[in-house]
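The protein record passed on below.

***
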Amino acid sequence: MKQNWEIKKLGEVCTVIAGQSPEGTFYNSEGSGLPFYQGKKEFTEKFIGEPTTWTTKVTKEAEANDILMSVRAPVGPINFSTQKICIGRGLAAIRASKFIDKEFLYNFLLKHENEIVGNAGAVFNSINKSQIEAIEIPLPPLPEQQRIVAILDEAFAMVEALETRAKRNMQNAKELFESYLNSVFTKKGKGWEEKKVQEITKVVNGYAFASNNFKSTNTIKSIKITNVGVKEFVEETNNYLPEKFKETLKEFQVKEGNIVIALTRTIIAAGLKVAVVPESYDGALINQRVAALVPNEKLVNQRYLYNFLTTDGVAKYVLANVNTLMQPNLSINDLKNLLVPCPTLKEQQSIVKKLDALSTETKKLETIYKQKINNLEELKKSILQKAFSGQLSEL
């Protein structure tokens, strides 16, 4: 830290206002009174989002340009207030005095938002007004604060531009694969036939196990709808069934590589939630509202069928047939009657080979871009570290 910098407590250079929630009877959604924020639910990247609740009884106020801090788990996240608002007990407002630049203060709190700890070194589940006021900040003269803010603004703008480019490139790689995948099944080749799912697979509808059948101390794994993610299998540790079901309910067992589909909680916009059974779930029993497809290997390649089920065409079929009266629900009959475009097995295998190769390259690119984004996040942390130790020079 430079010689002309001081260590100040926030309470010496800021006003801290602890939130207090009005009674719920004063809340409304019609815009009457002041916008009311209870916690960080409406936080965005930097400025708090639009209100969804207002209150006609005002307890504690924050002004425009006050820094709002989440003071209940999670503790530390910050946003700027954009107008006069009422704040509940999940927030505190930190108002900069003439001795501290509000952007300098914001960047300091941003650097430390994951590091707010108690005297014993434990992270707070909540933090109160006096604890916020006791936070120490290294404080240079005001012109130096403003110089540092200008450098940070320029540096972060550059980092944000690079992050945006990396995220766009990653999205482009995903879209390239999706585009090719969909084109395979829309531009059908000569001699392709359409067959119903039930004509080329054995469709297994899950068994309605009682909730008390599931215990972490049991030995037989099961597959519930929560195991079936969007194009991925989600492993869990509490879906175990008694050993006796292994023999008595054999018809509900699946093998590694089988396709499982969630019939309830279908994501309408994305189509089916479909996954492949991993080796660790070989022999698992499927629960109600999950269907398993066991392909007839003489008619359809398992990977070919899986790829088809993830296409936009299937998403449109689901949208047309799903029951949305309660929660999105695709019937087992609609699944059985889904038409699958089927070329010869040899052509299916060729298609799978090309899709697997493109998928591998896409995942490599995603890994590269994710690493770039992580590196840029680390760069931001490094810049902030230098800023508050007096080591930040011009870019």
Summary: The CA atoms of residues 64 and 83 lie 4 Å apart. Residues 6-139 form a domain with the Adenine-n6-DNA-methyltransferase TaqI; Chain A, domain 2 fold (CATH 3.90.220.20). The longest helix spans residues 142-186. Confidence is low (pLDDT under 50) at residues 118-122.
